[in-house]
Amino acid sequence: MIYKNPVVKGFYPDPSVCRADDGLYYMVCSSFQYFPGVPLLRSSDLVNWEQIGSCITRTTQADLSEAESSAGIFAPTIRYHNGRFYMVTTNTSANKNFYLYTDDITKEWSDPVFVDQDGIDPSLFFDDGKVYFISNGTDDEGNEGITQCEIDISTGKKLSPSRTIWKGSGGRFLEGPHMYKINGTYYLLAAEGGTEYGHMITYAKSASVWGEFESYPGNPVLTNRDLGTFIIQGAGHGELVESPDGEWFMIHLGFRQEGEWLHYHHLGREVFMTPVQFKEDGWFTAGTNGTVGEEYEIKGCKDQKKYEVQTFANTPREAGWVYLRKPDINNYSYSGDKYVLHGTNKTLFDRSSPTFTALRQRDFNGTVNCSVRLDGRDFGEAGITMYMDEDDHYDVCIRRNNQAWLDTRKKYEAVLKLNIGDIRHIQAVVPLPPGTDNASFIIEMTNTEYTFSVVIGEKTHTLGKARTKYLSSESAGGFTGVMIGLYASDGTAEFTDLKIQYC
Questions:
Q1: Residue-wise pLDDT tens digits, 259-284
Q2: Under CATH, domain 2-297 is a member of which superfamily?
Q3: Residues involved in catalysis
């Protein structure tokens, strides 16, 4: 069967995959300042993935209250050993590496077990009754590179000094290490070049878990760094994985730029899969002459599914809804046909936890429909936001008309606000009929722009357009992607009739 890349669309960066005894594959990805943290996905064929929950579901597992945008939870790794799942990651806001575990993937994960080794992008490797903790950082003698120690998996205590085992192939920002033992040989996979247009996957091999590791002569084994007009860019940070039919692939991140000559990406880093071919000398190659293509063949796979229309009814909380940092869950009430948000005095501009919940934007082209009813105070506001971070977001909302406070009737208006960096602009204001406290909004999405509209009675009013590139990593900075968010401040809002459809 032919599958198309990416296999998981939208903001799901730094993928890590393991296979369990049930024959299914499980994936985790970075989540940064969003909570719950570390989305957990499942697949039977490596092509069709569904999110079944998250690993970090309690604020006691990771404190994100002070996390800046694109900080917080970095690059997790998932492993399965002797009937138990392990997820290891870094909370960069606390500068601590830790892991969680569970014996039932459908239940909650443990409290954190901390490991006293620095760096980020940690990984676990189980071999011959021993467990190794690997990260990119500095070892006990001050050497920088891919660093490893042996640990007691029950306590996280180091059983050996941290030691640098590989310094990479010479690219900048050596990161994302994973160790494998295949046919008696140890393979150490890593990323270099920075998670942007120069990103790449490199590797080395050794006869011993401690090295010496020999770099692959053809490094980088996978990169799209020289394909300037190609849609797929930033390929790197990979995992080796074997398919149910015995084929080898790399699951890795990448991103799609907005167009052939439009060097911006706003959907975030996504999940791609690229074939791997082992050679007789033990080295392997990947992709199309070392690059990532738009489609490949895989044996024994079901047809690749398209995304169904997302509604409140078919998108429960565990299927991808997130909040910012350390939310007060009492401010949210979810049911099969609506979402009620109780706003506070915190707004989307605050680096805190405003009343906000969101789903990832999963593709370039589509439509968002949602109705909003606001029970507002004098300055209440609620709506839908295309959100990159606290400085960069486009908001279409209903708010109390604060010029009509002497009127006994509540007066509301529909508003489009465009916020780019330090610029906060009111693009359009449309008064709602007196006594009307609700409005239906439409957001049309393309690769280059959003169009915002409000439906009042039988008439649709276009509020304005905004370019997607100003919510891209190239413009806004950071490592995340655009989120389709619902928000409220200084009032209670009821959201109904949600429909997110991609085409």
A1: 999 999 999 999 999 999 999 999 99
A2: Glycosyl hydrolase domain; family 43 (2.115.10.20)
A3: 14, 175
